[in-house]
Specification:
Pfam family, one: HTH_3
Oligomer: single chain
Order of helices and strands: HHHHHEHEEEEEEEE
Distance between the termini: 22 Å
InterPro entries: Cro/C1-type_HTH, Cupin_2, Lambda_DNA-bd_dom_sf, RmlC-like_jellyroll, RmlC_Cupin_sf, TransReg_Diox_bact_type
Radius of gyration: 17 Å
Protein name: Transcriptional regulator, MerR family
Shape: globular
Keywords: DNA-binding
Strand order of the largest sheet: 1-2-3-9-4-7
CATH architecture of the largest domain: Sandwich
CATH topology of the largest domain: Jelly Rolls
GO molecular function: DNA binding; DNA-binding transcription factor activity
């Protein structure tokens, strides 16, 4: 079953009693952007959707989460990971797939992701920064990690750990995909 980003955004915006214009002002985007997303005429990048959701405020994990079972879930099978990537991003060059362990992170202080960076994938020229710590392990392939002015190429078995308040970026300029598992505390996406 495909996730309807537009319908979900519209439902949440209306539930919060916000007009498209009010949400746009809060998020620092145009109300046309909100309209296009809600009509599924524009599939936002993870960074763009996150920016819109900050106007609510809501995390990506909350946005994509379905109802949680009453008992706390401990084990998550591969098909139960929450996809944090939109369909348009999956079809674009250099796709990034982000799959989260667990759905609702409101009562969690740790976020764990299974990440895939296809050749050409890049988190963007604008460096990421957030009030967290993050670390990860490269399972397969290679990734270029930039933290501040330091650039490192990580390969299978290499790990990283840094303060996410430092500007950082992940990029795969190589010919094979890179698969990683990462953790972030507190959750960022």
């Amino acid at each position: 079953m495909d996730f309807d980003v537009g319908a979900r955004l519209r439902a949440i915006r209306e539930e919060k009693g916000l007009s498209q214009r009010q949400l746009a002002i809060r998020a620092g985007v145009t109300n046309g952007t909100i309209s296009l997303i809600e009509q599924n005429r524009n599939s936002p990048s993870v960074a763009s959707l996150r920016k819109v959701l900050q106007g609510i405020p809501m995390s990506l994990a909350e946005f994509f989460a379905s109802e949680m079972p009453e008992t706390e879930k401990i084990v998550f099978r591969p098909h139960e990971l929450v996809e944090l990537t939109t369909e348009i991003q999956k079809r674009s060059k250099g796709r990034i797939f982000l799959r989260q362990v667990g759905g609702d992170l409101r009562n969690r202080t740790l976020q764990i992701l299974h990440e895939t960076y296809e050749p050409g994938a890049d988190t963007g020229r604008t460096m990421l920064q957030h009030a967290s710590e993050e670390g990860g392990l490269v399972i397969e392939g290679r990734i270029e990690l930039t933290v501040g002015d330091q650039i490192e190429v990580l390969g299978e078995g290499d790990t990283y750990l840094f303060d996410s308040r430092q500007p950082h970026r992940f990029r795969n300029p190589f010919s094979e995909p890179c698969i990683m598992v990462s953790a972030c505390t507190p959750p960022y996406l």
